Amino acid sequence: TWPLVAAAAALAAADPPPTMPQAAGVGGSTARRDFYWLRSFLAGGVFSALCAVPRKEGYLGLYKGNGAMMIRIFPYGAIQFMAFEQYKMLITTKLGISGHVHRLMAGSLAGMTAVICTYPLDVVRVRLAFQVKGEHTYTGIIHAFKTIYAKEGGFLGFYRGLMPTILGMAPYAGVSFFTFGTLKSVGLAHAPTLLGRPSSDNPNVLVLKTHINLLCGGVAGAIAQTISYPFDVTRRRMQLGTVLPEFEKCLTMRETMKYVYGHHGIRKGLYRGLSLNYIRCVPSQAVAFTTYELMKQFFHLN
């Protein structure tokens, strides 16, 4: 269990609260579309948001929802890594599936399990982060729980957007574990001296060097985020619920994706804010996977 706690702590340290490009309307310049991705990274929401939030709400505005995120990320990380190992063993022993496919399946199931267990805290985190200074609906985590429960249908209010979250988490977690595991095994098989070293707890087992671990984890996170991002945008809008003016047009996953695509398109709608999520996701996954691998050695689990 200790490596699972360490991995959860790593996720907490590397995973800052989300900013709002996903839920915003169409913005940015009207310059040539040829350089959209470069413009979106440099000026189309990332740095402009990082500058605008402190001006309007002070630097603490960048940490709205951080308390709920910290409470959520520890059980989320622990459940995800624990479930991955258990699902991997189950798929291998009971179904007879091994190789790279079992990583994809186990990672997807582990991600969905962790999401279902911690989803109410994610909803509260998003609601708190989206509040504008001077227009607070919720005064804190407990008040947010009470208000959502009282005004949005009881416990069902805490599971708004669960379906797109599960559909997005399955490829996200699956591809993350699959990519990291594949890069690790391929790297150690083809370049063991260059990329690997003997494990500190078992010299007969090769593990990746720390900086290679970070690189593989970052690549895994970037690929997984790109694949699953439209579901993440859909989830955020559904979680915000009555906070958004177009609330009644985004009641289901299908309606929400149709609304976002119809009004904002793919690049400025379904993939809005992707550049900021790369900045958030790549180091988060890199640190999480690396910490998990190091703690497995520390507790002699290899």
Automatic annotation (TrEMBL):
It is a multi-pass membrane protein. Solcar repeats lie at residues 19-90, 98-186, 208-298. GO terms for biological process: transmembrane transport. The keyword Membrane applies. Coiled coil: none annotated. It is found in: Membrane. It holds the Pfam family Mito_carr. Belongs to the mitochondrial carrier (TC 2.A.29) family. This is Solute carrier family 25 member 16. It comes from Chinchilla lanigera (Long-tailed chinchilla). The lineage of its organism: Eukaryota, Metazoa, Chordata, Craniata, Vertebrata.
